[in-house]
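Fold this sequence, please.
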Amino acid sequence: MRDWIRKTTRFLKEVRTEMGKVSWPPRKQVIGSTAVVMVSVFIVSLFLGLVDVILRTVMATVLH
């Protein structure tokens, strides 16, 4: 039982050490990248919604 506590503690220490080696981007870059992702998701969702409406209309017309 104590073995998993020791292993977990060692793992968390190693994680902390590795996180110190990470090169974090500046805050401004993170905010800019996040904005690009959000705008891209919005545009793609609008496109897919439009395609869905068009296909639904075509299918309703064909089936009736």
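Helices lie at 2-21, 27-63. The two ends are 67 Å apart (CA to CA).
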